[in-house]
Amino acid sequence: MANPLEQFAIKRYAEFSVAGADAAFTNASLFMLIVLGLTLLFFWLGSRNPQLVPGRWQAALEGATGFISGMVEENIGPKGRAFVPFVFSLFIFVLVANLIGLFPYSFTVTSHIVVTFAFAALIFLICVIVGFAKHGLHFFSLFVPQNTPIVLMPLIVLIELISFLSRPLTLSIRLFANMTAGHILLKVFAGFVISLAAAGGALAAISILPFFMTVAFYGLELIVAVVQAYVFALLTCIYLNDSINLH
Amino acid sequence: MPQFDFSQALPQIIWLVLVFGILYLAVRGLYPRVEKVVENRKARIAADLREAEAARDSAEAATSGGTTALAQARAHALGVTGKARDEANAATQRRLAEIDAGLEAKAEAAAASLVRQRDTAVAELDAVAAEAAADLVKRVAGLDVSNDEAAEAVKKAAA
After folding, report:
1. How far is residue A14's CA from residue B19's CA, in Å, rounded to a whole number?
2. From chain B, which residues contact A within 8 Å (Cβ)?
3. Distance in angstroms between the alpha carbons of the first and the last residue of chain A
4. Domain segments of chain B: what residues?
C-alpha cells in the first residue's frame, strides 16, 4: 500500500536562492502559484464586464466579496473596512488551496504547518501592531476583562495572556490538522480499494465498501475545505476586532 | 511526516510571502472595483424604487383628482337638470293656472249671459203673456184692455 504521507512530501523542482537563503521552486511553490492564478482568474471572470444583472462569474465573485465584507462589518464594524482586502485574501487563498488539494495527485499547500503557522504568525503580528498603534499601552487592558474581582485578577490575566499567546498556534494547527487528517484518511481508504481489488476473489468484491467510504469522505472533505477557510477568516476577524475595539 | 521536516520550511515561507504578497496587492486593487459595481447596483435599485414610488404617488393623486372632478361634474349636472326641471314645472304650473283662470272667466261670462238671456226671455214672456191676456180678454169679454193694464194683471197673477 502506498504511503499515505507521501502526498505531503516537498519536491524540489528548481534550485533558487535569495540573498543566500534557500528559495527552491517546489511543488508547494507551484500550487501557491496555481492558487494565485485561479484567484486572479476568478477576479478577471467576475469583474471584466460588470453588468447590472450579474452573470454567473460576476454573481459568484460578488457573493464571495459580499460574504467577507459582511463578515468583517459584522465582527469588527466600520473600523474594520481597511482589513477587508486582507481577510478576503486569506479566505480566498485558504479556500482555493484547500479545494485544489482535493484533486488527485495535487498538493495541499495548507496541509503544511509551516504555511499555516506563517499565516497565523502574520495575523498575530498584525493584531499586536494594530492594537498598540490604536491604543498604545492601553492595549494591555485586553487581558483584564471588565468587572473581574480583584482577587481573581492575577489568575484571569494569566489565563487571558496564555489564550492570547496561543492564538497563532491554535489557528495554524486547526487548519493544518484538518487538512492533513482528511487527506490521510482519503488516501488510506482509497488504498484499501486498491489492495482489496488486487487481492482478488471475494476480497475484490468487498472493495466496493471502502470505495463508497472514500466517496463519502470526499464529500465531507469538500465541506471541511470550505468550513476551514471560513473559520480561518472568521477567527482573523475576531482577533482583529479584539485589537481594534478591545473588548 | 514531511510537514515536520523543517529543512524545507524556508523555501515554502519565501514563496508564500511572495505569492501571498502579490495576491494581497491584487485583491486590494481589484476589490474596490467589485464593491463599486455592487454599490452602484444598490444605488440604482434604490433610485428606481424611489422613482416608482413617486410615480405611484402621482398616479394616485391623479386618480383621486379625477374622481373629485367627476363628482363635481356629476353634482353640477344634477344641479343643472334639477333647475331645468323645476323651471319647467313652474312654467307648466303657471300656464295651467292661466288656462284655469281663462276657462273660469269664460264659464262665468257664459253663466252671466245665460242669466241675462233667461231674464230677457222671462221679460219677453211677460210681454207676450200680457198681450195674450189682453187678446183673450178682448175676445172673450169684448173688453178693450190696454197693454199696461194687461201687464199689471199678469204681474199680479204671476206673483
Report:
1. 17
2. 1-6, 8-17, 19-20, 22-24, 26-28, 30-31, 33-35, 37-38, 41, 44
3. 52
4. 10-158
Q: A162 CA to chain B: closest CA distance, Å?
A: 24
Chain segment A34-48, per-residue pLDDT in tens: 999 999 999 999 988
Query: What 8-state DSSP symbol labels residue A103?
Result: S
| Residue A230 domain-assigned (yes or no) | yes
Sign of torsion over alpha carbons A62, A66, A68, A72: positive
Residue A73, number of CB atoms within 10 A of its CB:
14
Considering the domain boundaries, does residue A143 fall inside one?
yes
Q: How confident is the model at residue B139 (pLDDT cuts 50, 70, 90)?
A: confident
Interface pTM, i.e. ipTM: 0.91
**Per the CB < 8 Å rule, is B31 touching A85?**
yes
Global confidence as pTM: 0.76
Assess if residue A93 is contained within a domain.
yes
Question: What are the beta bridge partners of residue A21?
Answer: A18
- Enumerate the H helices of chain A as residue ranges: 27-47, 56-75, 84-101, 113-135, 153-165, 167-199, 202-206, 208-245
Q: Within an 8 Å CB–CB cutoff, is residue A96 touching chain B?
A: no
Domains of chain A: total:
1
CB neighbour class for B84 (10 Å; exposed up to 12, middle 13-18, buried from 19): exposed
Residue ranges in B2-142 assigned as alpha helix (H): 9-140
List the Cα angle A213/A32/B3 in 5-degree steps. 60
Inter-residue contact A27 to A101 (CB < 8 Å): no
Instruction: With H, G, I as helix, E, B as strand and everything else as coil, classify residue A12.
Output: strand
